[in-house]
Amino acid sequence: MARALKSGVALALRGVLIVAMVVAAGCTRPIESEFASVEQEGWSRGQSVVIEFPNSDTLSLCDLRLVARSDSHYNFDSLALTIVVKSPSGQQALFRTTLCADSDVEHTNMREWEQPLISGARLAEEGNYYFRITHSATRKVEGLWALGITRKEITER
Prior knowledge:
By secondary structure, this protein is of the alpha+beta class. It has one domain (about 30-155): Jelly Rolls, CATH 2.60.120.260. Helices cover about 15% and strands about 45% of the residues. It has one helix and eight strands. The strands form two sheets. Strands 1-8-3-6 form a four-stranded antiparallel β-sheet, with no helix packed on it. It has a four-stranded antiparallel β-sheet with strand order 2-7-4-5, with no helix packed on it. The N and C termini lie far apart (about 45 Å).
């Protein structure tokens, strides 16, 4: 009798665990990322990179994050950036942000870190969005080799 009870409890717990994993998987949406290369000889004030970001989901809310990839030559604590987002219909939005180096990321040959750019965004138009990221700091940047935009769909808050 005790063995049957233990077996039943174990089976019930296993069932609850499986349901919890399925529910958790259902709330997680894939992350989409697009990157653009930064000038390898150094990125100077006023230079831009453009990230083309395709969109087919016009209903869901998402978080957009700025992603940086660098090497051991990158030595900025923070980097001023101007970002112009152009929608498929040509409407534009301007953002000014500071890219802050992640102190938890080791200074190795390659590192990647990200930070929030826009929370709770809805890309309401189908087609390609363009993110023009312009270096606004005064000195030349070395060691930064790519910038990207990551989109993660919000399922519940």
